[in-house]
Structures are given as structure tokens and as C-alpha cells.
Amino acid sequence: MSVSQQLETPQTGKYEQPTGLFINNEFVKGLDGKTFESINPSTEKPIVAVHEATEKDVDHAVSVARKTFETSWRFVTPDQRGRLLVKLADLFEENLELLASIEALDNGKAFNMAKVDIGMSAGCLRYYGGWADKIEGKSH
């Protein structure tokens, strides 16, 4: 099984849907290879099978995250961290239609309501991106 699958939404057409676990900046298969299906609530039919994280996967992800924090991430300045959050907000907004389509397909929400949710999520990321260089303290 690959870690992505081509899917289609009524609003945006075909797109490549990652189905793996996002660990170390890439989508990977679960260590045990287990998957579970995401079900379309309006049709009760499977949308896609995604990889299931087991305790081993979580331990691995935490280990990788800890190593990253202790090496490269700890040298990222608060200003740079804020810029990364704002960039993520920009990406949410640039991909609003696709993200809202996926959200609507996955949970049965109306597309227009999903667009509002994605927009609000982008706003939240932008808000915290603005705070990243204003809060002082130690994280280690």
C-alpha cells in the first residue's frame, strides 16, 4: 500500500490524499501496517484507508520529535517560528477550497461551513504566529 491515494471531491476534482502517518516531515506507513477506513457519513461508504498509529508508531514519532527539538529546532528563533505559523496560515488560505472539500467529504459537513472552519483555523494560526516572538521564557 502506498502512503497516498488519488481521490476526488465534488468541489475540486481529483487530488492526491496522503494516507500515511506524518513523522519526520514525511508521510510513512505505520510500523505494523494496520489501516482503518474513513467512512463518508452521507453514503456510509469508505472514502479511503489510512494508516493506523500504534504505540510503537507514537514512540517513534516522539523520539524523532525529541531529537529534532534537541538539535535543529531549538535554534529556530521565536521570530522564525512565528513566520512558519503565518506561512502555514497562508497555505490554509491558498488551499481553502481543497481543504474544505476534504473536510466536508470526511465529516458530512456542508462545504460552505467547512470553508468557514478552515478560514478560522488559518486565523488561529496567524494569531499564534503573531505571539511567537512576544512570549518570553524557557522551553527546555
Strand order of the largest sheet: 1-2
What's the N-to-C terminus distance?
Answer: 39 Å
Number of strands: 6
Helix content: 40-55%
State the major sheet: 2 strands, antiparallel
**Number of contiguous helices:** 4
| Averaged pLDDT | 94
Order of helix and strand elements from N to C terminus: EEEEEEHHHH
How many domains would you count in the coordinates? Answer: 2
Instruction: Give the percentage of residues in beta strands.
Output: 15-25%
Rg calc: 18 Å
Structural class: alpha+beta
Can you offer a commentary on this structure?
With 140 residues, this protein is α+β, with helices and mostly antiparallel strands. Helix content is 47%, strand content 21%. The chain contains four helices and six strands. Strands 1-2 form a two-stranded antiparallel ribbon. Strands 3-4 form a two-stranded antiparallel sheet. The protein starts with a strand and ends in a 9-residue tail after the last helix. The mean pLDDT is 94.
Per-chain topology:
Blueprint: E1 4-9, E2 13-18, E3 21-23, E4 26-28, E5 35-39, E6 46-51, H1 55-70, H2 78-94, H3 96-107, H4 111-131
Helix pairs in contact: 2-4, 3-4
Quick rundown:
With 140 residues, the protein is of the alpha+beta class. It has helices spanning 55-70, 78-94, 96-107, 111-131, and strands spanning 4-9, 13-18, 21-23, 26-28, 35-39, 46-51. A two-stranded antiparallel ribbon has the order 1-2. Strands 3-4 form a two-stranded antiparallel ribbon. It has a two-stranded antiparallel sheet with strand order 5-6.
